[in-house]
Amino acid sequence: xxxxxxxxxxxxxxxxxxxxxxxxxxxxxxxxxxxxxxxxxxxxxxxxxxxxxxxxxxxxxxxxxxxxxxxxxxxxxxxxxxxxxxxxxxxxxxxxxxxxxxxxxxxxxxxxxxxxxxxxxxxxxxxxxxxxxxxxxxxxxxxxxxxxxxxxxxxxxxxxxxxxxxxxxxxxxxxxxxxxxxxxxxxxxxxxxxxxxxxxxxxxxxxxxxxxxxxxxxxxxxxxxxxxxxxxxxxxxxxxxxxxxxxxxxxxxxxxxxxxxxxxxxxxxxxxxxxxxxxxxxxxxxxxxxxxxxxxxxxxxxxxxxxxxxxxxxxxxxxxxxxxxxxxxxxxxxxxxxxxxxxxxxxxxxxxxxxxxxxxxxxxxxxxxxxxxx
Length: 374
Known about the structure:
Layout: H1 2-7, H2 12-39, H3 42-62, H4 66-94, H5 100-107, H6 110-127, H7 131-150, H8 156-159, H9 171-176, H10 178-208, H11 214-239, H12 241-260, H13 265-292, H14 299-351, H15 356-363
Helix pairs in contact: 2-3, 2-4, 2-14, 3-4, 3-7, 4-14, 5-11, 5-13, 6-11, 10-13, 10-14, 11-12, 11-13, 12-13, 12-14, 14-15
Subcellular location: Cell membrane
Protein name: MFS transporter
Keywords: Membrane, Transmembrane, Transmembrane helix
């Protein structure tokens, strides 16, 4: 999209505003779709998300003014908010509790596959300036997703949801509940280096002149993420979520630290491997953790608020780190990111469970989750 916007004559500042508008739609609608998931059902919200994914690229084809493109981009953000929240809740509903981690891990394999295949196809078409074809492929993929979502079975849990107002849970209740607020805070802290990696790594590689393809960095990370997601879930059902979340945070922190000190091609290869392994484990395991700690009729709201922590970190990272990039350099950005990821380890190690003793035991796989509800 940035290359297309540049091709139609939009300046860099306006491009930044248009791209950033996606986060506005995403973050602003997460709590709303979370409530809809719990009160109207998972399938309806899936249909909303896939419909928006099919419609939004039409706007990119025919709209050329910056304000309208910002509106379309914010509208597009609704698709991710709706789809990811409803999809996660639906997978948890369908998964037997004893296999929840395994099934969440396997179903989340769609993420690295999409991130690996989509940019490859888009990059090939972009080289030939086939921008309209890119958007039409996006429209077709969204339409196919809409048709597939419409054929999904409605789980029985959705039919029997209790809509009593006394059972509703507010965002404030979620965030102030340590069982749920701590995972949200962990994702917020990780969101900053996550956003920095996806924004600044290509520029960082170029500035170092190490002859490394930035696309290869993301491909290696996607492969590592895929590998982690395919095997970790079932182990978490056996040994608990804590040991894998703690391990993923350590792995992710090490990956960001590699970036902070990178000076060769191999540095970026190791950083990509560690970042992929860390994020590929952390995200599905956190979804499993907060699902364990929430009731079925509140799960959509809980997932939406907790995942918003990651969304917010990613959204804030680009403008904040961009503002200080000239002063601290790219290595400085990733040094700060390392410190934030390391602080996420400390938060989870100290407050990840009922008290310090249980938290440390939970992180080492020696204690179960005291906060688990089902």
